[in-house]
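1st attempt posting a full record on here, be nice pls
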Amino acid sequence: MSHKITCVVVDDEPMARDILISYIERVPNLVLVKSCKNALEALSISQQEKIDLFFLDINMPEVSGLSLAKLVGNASKVIFTTAYREYAVDGFDLKAVDYLLKPIGFDRFLTAVNTFLGANLGAKNQTSQHSPSSEFFFVRSDRKMVKINLHEILYVESLSDYLKIITDNGTVITRETITNIQEKLPEELFLRIHRSFIVSLNKIDSYTNEFVEINKKAIPISRSYKVAILEKLEKN
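the predicted structure (as tokens):
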């Protein structure tokens, strides 16, 4: 079963809360626990149950979002939301996952969520066996954000001005760079074998010194990557 990420939205503006709530509802695995109009209400929720992620406005009456983040400490992660750019430094000093400047678009929201997922995945890999079937990210394709499940990826191919992500269920074309995609993929499950190719280690059917084969496609191994790649393949 996929891991559910519990979320709390904290903002004194009703419209700002409604926007974030609608975004959360569109993302699988994000579960909204509570929408709060002030920091004290959110603090009470955090004391009653485990909250994975706060979407937290900074400039609020009585208790600011920065103060709440300090009170919550390391128990939860925080994505700050604010209309004031000058708070960014303070936000990152508190080791926030991200800092979203209002008005917040859905694309930017997804980037912040993916940052959280990447950090969370790294922490899990240090303490337990990773389960790729519960992990995913989003890319823009054909004017919409498309969910990519890590366990379904066969390989990634970079072409002149776009990228193909080949999965068990078909091909997704996006304008993302291969470097950006590589940052979203866990190193223990994926391998860059060429400047234009990243492959899933679990999907490799066979390999030689010159190429790997996935789903009957021969994918070249670059000379510059060859020694490191062959060492890793031999260990698996």
